[in-house]
């Protein structure tokens, strides 16, 4: 698909908006044809690889939030074309104002019909990365109404240190929500159009509501990092697991340059 390799230039206002708020939503990044194609391809791969057997009602809050499958690019050439897209990686590079980006990993996040909330959290709690130059592209594979549980952001909340030590949990939902309640950060809750994609920094606090519809909320995510990113010493079990899983062979204090972390732009 040629569109995936075509540039998507950003203007100064968009770059400034991201710098201030550490998230941005961009319309018409992909067209309806591309979204429909990847809805089909990624859905089939998730069905094929999903091993979740516990009924929804018997799972904990994290388990009710979504089905998640990682690095699908390794298992399907069409998905690899999306994950390696110059268009998307170029946007990430422009937003972070870096020379280029590497892949950290990809992740399908499918919130089932009746699935619960995704609690407030910051992604970089899990990432053993030396700087904050990391960003996630959140790509809905269908029009996503408020009832489906789209991503919500606390604009500018990357400035808050309290709550960064929390994994995704009931505790993170309640403690971060209380902290945000007494601040002036704008809570952004909006639906997503077909082809609209959000990009958010690793330290911005975000969440998603429950899926109260009868349809699966299908989302593909791609996490990028500065191509010069170095591995830091893990500070928790999540970061230790990420090092071994997504950056195998990388050395603490050195650039993350492994076969799983190719330069994409």
TrEMBL record:
Cofactor: Fe(2+)
Protein name: Ectoine hydroxylase-related dioxygenase (Phytanoyl-CoA dioxygenase family)
Molecular function as annotated in GO: 2-oxoglutarate-dependent dioxygenase activity; iron ion binding
Coiled coil ranges: none
Signal peptide: none
Manganese keyword on record: no
Organism expressing this protein natively: Flagellimonas meridianipacifica
Pfam families from the UniProt entry: PhyH (PF05721)
Keywords associated with the record: Dioxygenase, Oxidoreductase
InterPro entries tied to this protein: Phytyl_CoA_dOase-like
